[in-house]
Structure formats: structure tokens, C-alpha cells
Amino acid sequence: MTEPGADSDRPLAIEDYGLIGDCRTAALVGRNGSIDWLCWPRFDAAACFAALLGGAKHGRWSISAAESAVNTSRAYRGDTMILETVFATADGAFAVLDFMPIGQPHSSVIRIVEGRKGRARVRMNITLRFDYGASVPWVTRLPQGGGIVAIAGPNLAVLRTPAEIRGEDFSTSAHFSVDVGERVPFVLTYGRSHLQTPHPIDAEAALDETERFWREWAAKCTYQGRQREAVLRSLLTLKAQTFAATGGIVAAPTTSLPERLGGPRNWDYRYCWLRDASLTLTALICAGYHDEARAWRDWLRRAVAGTPSDFQIMYGVAGERWLPELEVAWLPGYQGASPVRVGNAASEQLQLDVFGEMMDTLHLARGGEIAPQATDWDLQSKALEHLEKIWREPDDGIWEMRGGRKNFTHSKVMAWVAFDRSIRDAEKYGLEAPLAQWRATRDEIHNTVCARAYDPMHNTFTQSFESRELDASLLVIPEVGFLPVDDKRVAGTIAAIERELFVDGFVLRYRTETVADGMPAGEGVFLPCSFWLADAYQKQGRMAEADALLHRLLALRNDLGLLSEEYDTKAARQVGNFPQALSHLALVRTVLSQDARAPLREQIETLVQAKAG
User: Fold this and answer.
1) Does the pLDDT at position 160 exceed 60?
2) Cα-to-chain-centroid distance, residue 297
3) Element containing residue 133 per DSSP (H, E)
4) Cis link prior to 162 (omega < 30° from 0)?
5) Which CATH number covers residue 108?
6) Whose CA is closest to 120, among 73, 160, 166, 86?
7) Are residues 251 and 140 in the same domain?
8) 226: which residues sit within 8 A by CB, 6+ positions away?
9) Contact present, 107 and 100 (Cβ < 8 Å)
10) Domain range for 446
11) Residue 104: inside a domain, yes or no?
12) Beta carbons of 341 and 327 less than 8 angstroms apart
């Protein structure tokens, strides 16, 4: 497939984008030098560059070679989130250094054009369109010169540059040349239109400060194993998807990148999922990032504070609960995949597994010496009191089904986890609890799952009670300790998943053509599930197969080390929102587990025992 150039009105392949961010929001930068996605001032705010879900008229910022014949290469600058894209032509070469400075009063994108060879001709074009491409701003020159101010309603963006710029066709352009060593900065800063215009930023000083921040953060990583590059890049990506003010980590900085090219399985992932909580905590603790783990734990505690009956599966980056789902009709969708959705109706679903995720996270936090506050035990107790009343009810499941509620096995297993972890903590730390009652409920859940979710004819657990469908979420059964990996029912489940959900060397969530999930059939293999299978192989002692699957998964990363949620094995394309936190978290867990030959949960226990000793 021919890659679209800077003049193309078609977004690139998902894997052709890189990520930059300032721990408030993030932008996607194409290998062609075009920023096609940026939401300001937060991850979940309206986009001002939305070409990713439409075309140039919906907003983008392109810097590329003036000549049509060009070779490009790109890489992050060391262990940072500073992206360098090099454009080489017959006359010369130049690099574009893209980054978002950390800790500034206002969020900015800085792009520095640096001459590398000969005399290179460069073109710049910026088309600002607020409100997901719907609002064309009023653009004026800065009074002192050297840039423009764009205003639309409450939104303001100011572009400052020494390059000569001009307006054309409701966009702003520049054409200039750079010699070797010459550097031309472009600084785009967001503000509110009713407030003072943001002050200028020294691009070179901001570059030094940003590089120092990321290098110092990366240096805290305690993992020094054979896949350090992959682990550290995943951790850097997760940090860039963290809303620093609250500690919340978004599942992805994008919305509506399709799980099937051209299809309608398109969701908004710019929120924080409780389901990722325990995996996030274990990965951060075992990689040496205790401050981030504490911040994530604190975000979790604030988000769920309130009445347990109001628990949600996801929240906004500051803990917002109202996330209504709307369709953005004027955006045609990524390469025609519609509808484009803003907000997520799954936030209103009942998913019992979030109780287990919350209790498991707080349990791991206590073990990892980032103990919850004393008042959290009261919240946990009230949550379990509510769970006792509702755990028998059908729910919408881990995959947020829109085809009707069922008694999903994964949900019941995680309800068991909620009671199991709370019982353990009460026993270990002397916390007040109705232990006899909790133990009885834990046993009842366990017995119910084993009786109603197990298919003895095929020796496998099933997606839901009394069904025949398989589900890759069943791989968590040995991971959370519901049953040991050498139990014949667990072994049979893993074997069944290998037979029926293993496609082209990777794992499907479930068979969409046979499961009524409320959407048309068809999606890519689900990358976190493939990592889960590698973890199951390790538990079974099948290390050669675990290593082989891990290496196949690592090979799916793009040239910058980034992963989306799914992969289309036929088209050899990444699909789904990008970069996907859960994919990178699963990568970190699998690599750290395989290197230590021990699950991360055991590693946390080892850390605690070592400190106690």
C-alpha cells in the first residue's frame, strides 16, 4: 500500500503514527510530519486537529519537505517522548523535533525544524479546527508580529515562529529553507479566549527541560532485563497517557479508531478504566515507579468514593462520572469507519468485575507498601455489602457487550476475587470484618461458577453460565488464584482457547460471529489476550511457547515501539485505539514475569518480604 504523503487528505495507517504528550493531553504525529490528532486542553476535550477521523479540513498541522520525492525516518530521542522525524531529499535533509513541554502554565506543542544536510526546502501548513473539526477560528496576527492568534468561542491557540507565515484558504502556511545546523521553531500554545494570551515559550530551553524530565523519569526504571527497551518504551507511553494532576491513566488518547477497518466497532477510550487498575499497579510497582502507583491508587480511591451502588467501570481523568455517548456526524471516521463516538455509554453498564479489580488493587497496594488510607476499609466493606446483594445478577461483562446481560464467568470470578482479597487483608492486618459471612459468600460464588460455568463434555469453562461459547477472559482464572493452573478444568480451558480462539498465532476475545454482542461480526485479534495466553503458558511451564508468543507480539509493535488494542492479521495492520494502555501494561507484565520466572503478584510479595527482612 502506498503511504499517503503530506498533501494526502487520507489519514495514515494507525501504526504510522507516533505519540507525544505533556501528561495533560497528547498528540499523534504521522511519519509524514502531520499532526492529525490533538485534544485540548485535556485528553477528553474536543479535538482541534481531527484529520485522523476525517481529512485535512477537520484540522491538522503538517511540516514536510517541499519536494515530492522524499525519504523519511523517525525515532524517539533516547528514552524520551521527543520524536525526531528526518526528511531527506535530493537537495538536503532536515529533522522535525516534536514534543510537548512538561510543567508549563499552558499546554503547548513545539516543533523545531533543524537542517541536517545541504539546503533543504520546507513547507508548513496548519489548519486549526476546534470542536472536532466543526469550528473554524477567527485568525489574526500577533500585535508584535511573529505569529497568529486563533479564537473560536472559549478556545484560543497562539502560534509563534520566526518563519514568515501567510494565510491561505482558511489555513496558515510557510515556505522556507534551512541550512545545516539552522533551527526554526514553531510553538503552538493553547489558552482560553477570555483570558490573557499565553506568554511566549523559549523553544530551545523547553526542549532541554523536556528531555531532562523524560530521561530522569526513565532512569527510575528498575527493570534491566533482556527486553528493557520494550518495557521502558511501554512505561514511557503509559506515563504520557497519565493526567498528572490526578494520576488517572487514559486507556488511549484517541476515540473511534476501528477494531475492524471500515466497521462500526468504534469507541471512545479517552477515559480511565477500573479494569486496568490492578495490572497498572503491579506493573508500576515492579518497575520501580512507586510515586505513579500511589497517584493511580489515589485516583482510584477518589473516583469510586460515594455509594457502592454507583460504582462505574470507567471515569474521566479527574473522576468524572457523566460520560454520555454522542455521535459526531460531520466526521466521516478513520478511513471511512463510522460512526465517530464521543463519550462512552458503557460507563452506565453493570460490570461486576470492577468490584474485584478495586479490591485486588487495594490488596496489592497494601502488599506493595503504598497502603490505602484507613477510611478505605470502610469503603471496601460497604462495597462488599452491596456486592453480596447483586453478584448473582447478570451483567454486561468485561467486553462491555451491547447484546444483553448474561451471567458472564469472568464477572463472577472477579466477584470471588473481591471477597477473597478482602478476607486476606482482614486476616493479615487485623481489620474489622464479618469474616464468616464473607467466607460463605466467597465459597458460594466459587461453587456456583464451577457448577454452572464449566462444560464437562468439552472440559472447559465457558463465557457465561450454561453456554458453549469460549472467551479469552477465562485465562484470568489461574492468574487471580480462582483455581490452580494444573487443575484439569483450567488446563482444558487453556487447550480449548488454543483450539478455537487462536488465529494466525494470536488470540481472539471470543468469536464475534457466534456471540450476540450487539455489533456486526468481525474484529482483529486482541493483543492483551495474547499476552494473557503467554502468561498461562509460563504458569504451565511451557516456556518455549511463552517466549515464542511474546516475541511474535513484540514484533507487532510499530517502529516506535507502540501498540494499539488489536491487530488485523489479514491486512497486517494495527487496529483499535492507539496507543492502547492495556496492551502496553500486558506487555510489561508478561516480560517482567517471564524474566523473573514469577508472576508480578509473587514479585510484590518478594519485595515486601525482602524489606521486612
Assistant:
1) yes
2) 17
3) helix 130-133
4) no
5) 2.70.98.40
6) 86
7) no
8) 595
9) yes
10) 221-612
11) yes
12) yes
Q: Note the helical H segments in 317-467.
A: 353-367, 375-390, 409-429, 435-452
Q: Do residues 194 and 234 share a domain?
A: no
Quick one: cell of 521? 461480526
Q: Which three cell numbers stand for residue 217?
A: 523519569
**Contact between residue 583 and residue 14 where contact means Cβ atoms under 8 Å apart:** no
Residue 6's pLDDT is 56
* Bridge partners of residue 186, in order along the sequence: 111
The answer to whether the CB of 508 falls within 8 A of the CB of 529 is: yes
Rg, the chain, Cα only: 25
Residue 6 within any structural domain of the chain: no
* CA–CA distance, 240 with 253 (Å, rounded to integer): 9
Say which CATH number the domain at 297 has. 1.50.10.10
User: pTM here?
Assistant: 0.95
73 and 178 inside one domain: yes
Say if residue 228 is in the same domain as residue 85.
no
The DSSP secondary-structure symbol of 368 reads T
Residues 6+ apart with CB under 8 A from 374: none
Q: Cell 485486588 appears where?
A: 360
Within this chain, do residues 123 and 64 fall inside the same structural domain, yes or no? yes
3-state DSSP assignment of residue 325: coil
Q: What's phi and psi for 322, nearest 5 deg?
A: -90, 105
Residues 193 and 277 in one domain: no
Q: Is the pLDDT of residue 114 over 50?
A: yes
Q: Is pLDDT above 90 for 156? A: yes
- pLDDT tens column, 336-374: 999 999 999 999 999 999 999 999 988 888 877 677 677
Residue 200 and residue 104 share a domain = yes
What's the one-letter identity of residue 262? G
Number of domains in the chain: 2
Question: Residue 174 domain-assigned?
Answer: yes
Last residue of a domain, one of 152, 180, 210: 210
Q: Is the peptide bond before 456 cis (omega within 30 degrees of 0)?
A: no
Q: What is the C-alpha to C-alpha distance for residues 591 and 597, in angstroms, rounded to an integer? A: 10
For residue 1, pLDDT beyond 50: no
Does 501 fall in a domain? yes
- HSE of 230, CA atoms in CB hemisphere, 13 A: 23
Packing angle between helix 290-304 and helix 277-286, nearest 10 degrees?
160
Dmax over CA atoms of the chain, in Å, equals 79
Same domain assignment for residues 163 and 263: no
Report which DSSP code applies to 442.
Answer: H
Q: Which of 150, 183, 210 is the last residue of a domain?
A: 210
Count of alpha carbons within 13 angstroms of residue 288, beta-carbon side: 12
